[in-house]
Design goal:
alpha/beta; disordered N terminus; seven-stranded mixed beta sheet
Length: 304
Amino acid sequence: APDTPWMAAVLGEIIAEHTDFPAGVINIVTSDDHGVGALLSKDPRVDMVSFTGSTNTGRAVMTDSAVTIKKVFLELGGKSAFIVLDDADLGGACAMAAFTVAMHAGQGCAITTRLVVPRAAYDEAVEAAAATLGGIKPGDPNSKRTVCGPVISARQRDRIQGYLDSAIAEGGRFACGGGRPADMDRGFYIEPTVIAGLDNSAKVSREEIFGPVLTVIAHDGDNDAVRIANDSPYGLSGTVFGSDDRAQAVASRLRVGTVNVNGGVWYSADAPFGGYKQSGVGREMGVAGFEEYLETKLIATIAT
C-alpha cells in the first residue's frame, strides 16, 4: 500500500488508465515456496517482476525473467561502507556507525557494516565504536527501549555466528560482542559486535552478514578510502563524514546508489532508492520508481 497520500493518488491514476484489471485492485501473492516466484518470473502474462531480497535470489529472478525478456526491478544486498576522513569528528562518527549497525539487529540491506577509518586513529576508532555498540544490549523487540532485538531465525543466528567464527580464524578480534548473550538462553539473539584487526579482503568485510556486526578497516587517505569502499561486489549505499568539500568529493566517487554525507538523510518517498553492481537493477520510490512500472510508446501521425 502506498505510504503517502500523493503516492496513493498517482498510483490510482496509473491504475485507472489500465482497463485490463479492475481499478484500484492489486493482487498480492505470498508464499514461502520458491516455485511460486519462479512461476511468476517465467509466465508470459507477467510483464514485470519487482523483487527485494538477497542477491542470490535476485540472480534466479533475473534468469527466470529472461525466458520472456520481461522487465525486472531488483533491490538486493549490500556491504556498505561508512568512511571517516581524518578531519572528521572521529568519536561522533564512529558512535553513529555503531548505533546504526544495531538497528533492526543489523537486518537492513543498506546498513553501513564496514567502518573505514584513518589508520593513524584506528585504535581510537575501534574503542569509540565498541563503547557505543557494547552499550547496546539485545532485548525484547516489543519494548520501546530496545534498539537491537533478535534476528529473524535460529538459522540466521547460526549463520551470523559462523561469520564471527571466521573473523577469529582469519586473525581478527572482537572489541565487543562476539556471540550469543550469556544471559539470554532463549530467542535468536546475537551480541552487537565490533570486529577489529582485519582488512577489506576478510570474509566479514566482503559478504553480507545481515546481523549487528561492524568491521573496522583502516584507510591511508581519501583515495584509499574510496578504493576500499568501492572494492566490493555490492554498491547499495554509503556514508562519508569529514569537512564538507572533502566529504562531497569522496561521496561523488563512490559507486553506490545513495550516500549520507555528514548525517544527510537520503531515504524519502520522493527520493529514488537502488544500487549499483550486485546490489540491484533499477530504482524504487520517486519519479524513477514509478517509471520502472511504465512502458514508453511513441505514436507518429501525419496531420490531415
